[in-house]
Design a protein that fits this description.
Elements lengths: L2 H11 L7 E6 L3 H15 L2 E6 L4 H8 L7 E4 L2 H9 L3 E2 L22 E13 L22 E2 L6 H14 L1 H14 L8 H9 L5 E5 L1 H7 L5 H5 L1 E4 L10 E9 L5 H11 L2 H11 L2 E2 L8 H5 L10 H17 L5
Parallel strand pairs: 1-2, 1-3, 6-7
Antiparallel strand pairs: 3-9, 4-9, 5-7, 5-8, 5-9, 5-10
InterPro entries: Ferric-bd (IPR026045)
GO cellular component, one term: outer membrane-bounded periplasmic space
GO molecular function: metal ion binding
């Protein structure tokens, strides 16, 4: 069943809740979510009420328990999707037909979470000192990059996801050695966010960095950061083998959602062509819905091969990834 048909059925089935409000807890920023939710309300008549926060929403859900007003939780990375499920704060979304909009790789096998957008963990390189690179993540351990790498904390979810994927592909021992060697190649202690690493390349502090691709688009939208973006090349790693590592933003239905039927409608809408196009346009992320194209700017960065490994396999190795980061004292 096409998701549009599914949404239509839901609309017919739940006309009695047309005035229901969906309560959303969002780790994602207002500039991205508000236009999408506004469109949802225009199409369904269902209002939304959103609590935005970068931190603390999971603790809030736990504290509120059965009295929580939250129906839906939007996350900015898959680590929080896994945490929500592991801590028993989700319930099955129960949307038959959703597989046409969200490939199996990006769905929980127990229907506890859905991915909504894809983020690629890229390698940025100095246009002036390195140029465009044909590079693997494994190459960052090479002596030729000694003193030339910048990165944010190894404990950040974006890096933990990458390290976990390397454990899946290369094993724990090999990944630990890779982390040791990358640490030896760092130009400075891990610090800042992904954009701070590109700024450091512009300032000549390092030549390469790890960073999600959509940050390049965000820097190009900020006149103060355009010089940073113009100083780097965007490289998709591991194109001759397994493909580039993919992280995701996603969504769950809260365990005690007071308005589950309306929450289901919101999830169906968020994976629809219209909402996925808005995600692509507003934040330069890759749509998880295979029928929706990336934005014009993102497409200009070129096609690439994705790592097809399931997020569940990566998630299982995240605790080991964190252990390795501590064992090699990556951030110290």
């Amino acid at each position: 069943m096409r998701i549009a048909a599914l949404l239509s059925l839901l609309l017919l089935s739940f006309t009695s809740i047309a005035q229901t409000t969906v309560n959303v807890y969002s780790f994602r920023q207002p500039f991205l979510i508000e236009p999408i939710l506004k469109t949802f309300t225009e199409e369904t008549g269902i209002e939304t009420r959103v609590v935005f926060a970068k931190k603390g929403l999971i603790q809030r859900l736990k504290r509120e328990g059965q009295l929580s007003p939250a129906d839906v939780v939007l996350t900015s990375n898959f680590a929080k999707l896994m945490q929500l499920k592991q801590e028993g704060l989700t319930q099955a979304y129960g949307l038959n037909g959703i597989e046409e909009n969200v490939p199996k790789q990006f769905r929980d096998s127990e229907q506890q979470w859905l991915a909504l957008t894809k983020r690629v963990r890229n390698v940025y390189s100095s246009k002036e000192r390195q140029g465009k690179l044909n590079i693997n993540y494994e190459d960052l351990a090479d002596d030729k990059f000694k003193g030339k790498i910048c990165t944010r904390s190894g404990k950040h979810p974006y890096n933990l996801g990458l390290i976990a994927s390397m454990i899946v592909h290369n094993g724990e021992a090999q990944t630990k050695q890779w982390l040791k060697d990358v640490k030896e190649n760092l130009a400075r202690k891990p610090q800042g966010n992904d954009r701070a690493q590109v700024k450091a390349i512009k300032e000549g502090l390092c030549d390469v960095s790890l960073g999600n691709s959509y940050y390049l688009g965000k820097m190009l939208q900020d006149e103060n950061q355009i010089p940073w973006a113009n100083a780097v090349e965007l490289n998709f790693p591991n194109q001759d083998n397994r493909g580039s590592h993919i992280n995701v933003s996603g969504v769950v239905i809260a365990k005690y959602a007071p308005n589950k039927a309306a929450a289901q409608q919101l999830l169906a809408f968020l994976t629809s062509d219209k909402a996925q196009s808005l995600y692509a346009k507003l934040n330069m992320e890759y749509p998880v819905n295979p029928s929706v194209e990336a934005s014009t700017l993102v497409k200009s960065w070129g096609e690439f091969k994705e790592d097809s490994i399931s997020l569940e396999k990566i998630a299982a190795e995240v605790p080991n990834a964190l252990k390795l980061v501590d064992e090699v004292k990556f951030d110290l």
